[in-house]
Amino acid sequence: MGCRMTTNMIIWKRQQGAALVVALLILVVVSLLGVSAMKSSVFSAKVATGTQADAMTFEAAETTLAEAYKELNNMSGADLYTKLAGGELLIRCVTEEDTTKEGACSQGDALDSRGLIVAQSFSKLNGYDPVPGSQISTTGGGAIFVDYKIAMLGESEMSSFNLDNHHLQEALKRGIKPGSEIE
Question: Based on the number of CB atoms within 10 Å of its own CB, is 135 exposed (0-12), middle (13-18) or buried (19 or more)?
Fold first, then answer.
């Protein structure tokens, strides 16, 4: 009987060792699945954050163009000619407090409350086309109606993500061009 018990104890101890090995293998597999799921989740979060940041810079560039359109629309033909004649750039920084700040953005100018996005617009006279049927007076002080072509560039930058966005559009604005300035 003493011999039989020893054999049973040896078989039982072998089975106990096999159960430990199987349990450890299951634990390793579950751990690998957990780490894989965590890496996938972190990657998905990075992609979502990058997509959101890209959308924010896109919208900021569009906002600068909308503000530039609004400003051009409110200008008279004479103001438009005066401000953009000679190929000068009309530069506007769009901030949270001021959507028509003259000049380029400086340190601390930001479109959002967190200070992440800097946005500005550049507008330049890109020529003109006479309006068909408009009259030109040959006497002193004559003028002609023209459609001014204005190239507008909206830019935004989110330096913390190394992102920038540039939108170039052309606008037409009807105005009066002095007869003395007609080529």
Answer: exposed
| Count of other CB atoms within 10 angstroms of residue 1 | 5
Q: Are 111 and 118 in contact (CB under 8 A)?
A: yes
Give 173's strand partners: 148
Number of domains in the chain: 1
88 assigned to some structural domain:
yes
**Three-class SS state of 132:** coil
Torsional sign, CA 109, 93, 96, 112: negative
126 in helix, strand or coil?
A: strand
Put simply, whether the predicted model's pTM sits higher than 0.85 gets the answer: no
pLDDT tens per residue, range 108-141: 899 988 889 999 999 998 888 888 766 655 555 5
Residue at 4 is within a domain: no
CA distances (Å), origin 54, targets 49, 117, 159: 9, 11, 12
